[in-house]
Request: fold
Amino acid sequence: MFTGIIEELGTVSSIRKGNETIVITIGAQKVLEDVNLGDSIAVNGVCLTVTSYTDRQFTVDVMPETYKTTTLKELNTTSAVNLERAMAAGGRFGGHFVSGHVDGTGEIIDKRPEKNAIYYEIKMPEPLMVYFMMKGSVSIDGTSLTIFGVSDDTITVSLIPHTVSHTVLGAKGKGQSVNVECDMLAKYVSRMMVSKVKERTGGKKELTFEFFEQNGF
Reply:
């Protein structure tokens, strides 16, 4: 479990790509302070397991499912990556519940400055749009962000200067892809509601915006 508060930017020092698999070695400092074999570290929002490490770098394996559904396959040697260790019990919880299990990828379709912030408009896969709401939470490349704009197929988030300079999202621009993890609580609620709808309609109804409208929401 993670919080979406990025601890440091790491750098890919080596990468070995196979047939829908990857072995990545990442240079880092802070996340290695108390690392152990088998620890979970979120890399651009993807929960990965440490398979080996030194005092300067660690190695992780990427399996086919992760390869297919995330942007990790786009990484190259020298790529910067967001890093976060699994949250510690009893520590401060500054973001939101982030599992490190990416739901899909989005595409940045607009990036523009607004006073001291930078606005990102991100096009999302249609099945994920039901999980987004104004002032709700989303993890973009592992960074916990607040949604302040929702359209039929996009969300808008805003980055403060600190987030711009301390995460990979700050360096990304129009046309680039990002890992997206929807709010965990929203997914649980949606799943329970879908089950209830199917139970009451004999499986004849799906949980859609039209269904909500027809039922007074």
